[in-house]
Specification:
eight-stranded antiparallel β-sheet; globular
Length: 145
Amino acid sequence: MAGNFITSANGIMTLTIASLFDAPITLQNWGSDRAWEQEAVEMLESQMSIDGVLNRGYIPRPVNQTLTFSAASPSIVYLEAIWTAQQSTMTAISLGAELTIPSTKRKYTFTNGAMMTGSVAPNGGTVLEARAFTFQWEKVFPAGI
């Protein structure tokens, strides 16, 4: 019997940092409880007129995304490089990304992004804790694979 598979374990995300690296970086060793998550985007605003007519309009909004990595992730080096470059140049480093999820046969392209927040070091506990970084994207384009 065939089933529906929704694993995120085989998801692949690449990050493009053209100003720092010649090729896209494949992100690895994600956090165990949550790898990536996107906030819901409010796409419309509405107003009710005094005579009871509901009016709506599209308003473009950025997409906020959090990526979480194991403290031992090799991807941390690249994320720290973005952080360091932004600190030293005092400017945003422009990013792009692509998330491919084979289990759902979907791909998402993230454009005109920047790292907005980041964990400066892993928190120490019984073991080192995962590190989270947030990104803001201008647009996200879904597609089939």
